Amino acid sequence: MNKDSGQRIKFAPGEALRGKGATAAEGFFAAGVSCGVRRAGELDLGLLFSGGPCVAAGAFTRNAFRGAPVGVTEEAVADGTLRAVAVNSGNANAATGAGGVEDARRMQTAAAEALGVEVGEVAVASTGVIGERLPVEKVEAGILDAAGRLGAGDDAFAEAILTTDTRPKQASATVRVAGKTVTVGGTAKGSGMIHPNMGTMLAFLTTDASVEREYLNRTFLAAVERSFNRVTVDGDTSPSDLALVLANGASGNEPLDADHPDAPAFAAAVEKVCVELARAIARDGEGATKLVTVVVRGAADEKSAAALAKSVAGSSLVKAAVFGEDANWGRALNALGYSGVAFDVGKAAIRFGEVEVFRGGEPVPHETAEANAQLSGEEVVIEVELGEGESEATAWGCDLTYGYVEINGSYRT
Amino acid sequence: MNKDSGQRIKFAPGEALRGKGATAAEGFFAAGVSCGVRRAGELDLGLLFSGGPCVAAGAFTRNAFRGAPVGVTEEAVADGTLRAVAVNSGNANAATGAGGVEDARRMQTAAAEALGVEVGEVAVASTGVIGERLPVEKVEAGILDAAGRLGAGDDAFAEAILTTDTRPKQASATVRVAGKTVTVGGTAKGSGMIHPNMGTMLAFLTTDASVEREYLNRTFLAAVERSFNRVTVDGDTSPSDLALVLANGASGNEPLDADHPDAPAFAAAVEKVCVELARAIARDGEGATKLVTVVVRGAADEKSAAALAKSVAGSSLVKAAVFGEDANWGRALNALGYSGVAFDVGKAAIRFGEVEVFRGGEPVPHETAEANAQLSGEEVVIEVELGEGESEATAWGCDLTYGYVEINGSYRT
């Protein structure tokens, strides 16, 4: 196999040198094409590629039922290296039996051959309808097509991985590390079937930092925990979810490990990109009109704070109240109560935006209209103070709307 | 205090001797009146009374945030006896601090005085809006009014305890025990904020059987586990939930205990009434158009089967698909996968009504239209066979509709 990668890469003239998401870091190239899995003309095949070898890490769905590509990709990243990612939308290649695994491997092989890399350097992902075999010939042809169109912009890639999303999701951050500027970028998709612990979401982060493998893995998993694992749209998790990070070292920095003085700055950049993408996923929740941010402070530990915040963000009744711009804080209190975390209601306080509504076991007198007005914007913030300790956590969700019902009552038809 | 109970009871002439729910058993009387907690003319105060002393048992919300009446009632039933229940709708008396507890005690005392029984023989319950003080004078006046109207029909009682419910919920069963016919009846409410482990639901069972206290408690809790704890409407549990059973022994049977040969028949009657009420609650889920019954068979144990069934019945995506009459079985498989129960997808099978859609890790070829047709009626049955063991469980839910969003986006306005 030809390992002299990139020989098929042609750059579109005038294209920006860096993209806004997965190609924001140096040395990463992407493309998105239409291969016919979705309706004619809709982008449905994305390819992401690094000009040089990368260390890599991944986080995978915890659903007991997993799509075929998840296992194939987990195997590929097990050695801590990757060089390319091939993704299709429109079909999740899940509940497709042994034939589905074969299809995922064909997809992986097609990308390896098109890019001149080893099969084990390619991650694959699929998102869309469950239980139908992937039209793998179309995907193979699409991969070949995309390999010839790789460029530094990732807008087409960002669009090709979407399903019911209404917007592409890209984010990036730069940080100085040992005297060099390194970039962390990412592109994600996710709209429905989103819940803590990876809903139907895909996220592909890249960085031109030089990073030691084990440190990258630990940093990435911590960032995933504080971002994608704190998003809930509808309480469902999916069989297809995965998040990957690839670091190609193109910025030439002194390699980062856990002991490097700039390690915290790098970790913060990774977390920032993950959080920005997570917020974009929540904001684009199926049918959503509002992003809901729930902050829990004063918890005994971060795990408790996160469970409480996710419980409020995930409550159907809270979500419907936000849609109706009804500051029904009793529902928030209620969701705290069934989170499974013990706390003293008498010490808790709840704030909707600027208005404190509950403290010390009873309502704080306030104008209902003023509290409701805190829910009128596109972003709603619910803050909880527990008075139990010093830890805090944030979770993100969205409102529950007629649109959610419409989208999911007729997805396949 | 005057313990010669019943002196205020007047029976309406021509009224049926037995009701369809909580007064189906001999010696129980009920009434429902309008006391002004809800809008003028809407029934909002229910009173249930036994002519003689009862052994009793209760199950209570597991929400860490509990309404004031829950604690008061738990205390009342702790000695295993009760004689009356006073319930209001329109206000949950929850998140109301120390004043709320005082209000619940005033409600309890008012009923005890009106009925001439001990304060500790009265259970209280409140359901409705959270976080507003109960207008307790109105409730006290309503209790006096209701005490003067007690009768053997429980239709007004059944209506007075409703909130967003669209229908009263009553059920009864008769069974021969030691040569006597005994009746078990019950009246319940519940529509939104319903989830396994007691959502906003209230259930009041009565029986004229003579039952040993500890056996009644065990039998009742087992029936609650297999009925109310397997209903999910929206994933939210409430601070106000409780289920009670009162047994007054009016049928004169030889007392039942766990060793009595007719104990299983009695337990089956209790479970039957609980299941019938649980199904009625699911069918009347906020905005629901369909009852969804999920049966999981072939599980390693009943607890696993119940967790799997509840996960499918509770999935927003499954619920929206049922609303859309779209036999999107991938979502059901997905919900099994994130239930937290380990199982082998390769051994599982899924059936929508009469149509098997998935077996052995892949789809069973079928006509989509035929599968969708299984979802066209008012009751949808999803069956799962795991192939892991011999245990089974059933859970009940409903579809997710525009109506749910409408009701909960504007409940207080």
UniProtKB/TrEMBL annotation, chains A, B:
Pathway(s) served: Amino-acid biosynthesis; L-arginine biosynthesis; N(2)-acetyl-L-ornithine from L-glutamate: step 1/4; Amino-acid biosynthesis; L-arginine biosynthesis; L-ornithine and N-acetyl-L-glutamate from L-glutamate and N(2)-acetyl-L-ornithine (cyclic): step 1/1
Reaction(s) catalysed by this chain's protein: L-glutamate + acetyl-CoA = N-acetyl-L-glutamate + CoA + H(+); N(2)-acetyl-L-ornithine + L-glutamate = N-acetyl-L-glutamate + L-ornithine
CDD domains associated with the record: OAT
Keywords attached to this entry: Acyltransferase, Amino-acid biosynthesis, Arginine biosynthesis, Autocatalytic cleavage, Cytoplasm, Multifunctional enzyme, Transferase
Any matching Pfam family: ArgJ
InterPro entries, sorted: Arg_biosynth_ArgJ (IPR002813), ArgJ-like_dom_sf (IPR016117), ArgJ_beta_C (IPR042195)
Record's subcellular location: Cytoplasm
Principal localisation: cytoplasm
GO molecular function terms noted in the UniProt entry: L-glutamate N-acetyltransferase activity; L-glutamate N-acetyltransferase activity, acting on acetyl-L-ornithine as donor
Site label Cleavage, positions: 199-200
UniProt keyword Phosphoprotein present: no
Enzyme class name: transferase
Active-site residues, Swiss-Prot/TrEMBL: 200 (nucleophile)
GO cellular component: cytoplasm
Record's keyword annotation contains Protease: no
EC code: 2.3.1.35, 2.3.1.1
Record-listed substrate binding positions: 163, 189, 200, 286, 408, 413
One Gene Ontology biological process: ornithine biosynthetic process
Record-marked site positions (Involved in the stabilization of negative charge on the oxyanion by the formation of the oxyanion hole): 127-128
Subunit structure: Heterotetramer of two alpha and two beta chains.
Family: Belongs to the ArgJ family.
PANTHER family linked to this entry: ARGININE BIOSYNTHESIS BIFUNCTIONAL PROTEIN ARGJ (PTHR23100), ARGININE BIOSYNTHESIS BIFUNCTIONAL PROTEIN ARGJ, MITOCHONDRIAL (PTHR23100:SF0)
Purpose of the protein: Catalyzes two activities which are involved in the cyclic version of arginine biosynthesis: the synthesis of N-acetylglutamate from glutamate and acetyl-CoA as the acetyl donor, and of ornithine by transacetylation between N(2)-acetylornithine and glutamate.
Annotated protein name in UniProt: Arginine biosynthesis bifunctional protein ArgJ
Lineage: Bacteria, Bacillati, Actinomycetota, Rubrobacteria, Rubrobacterales
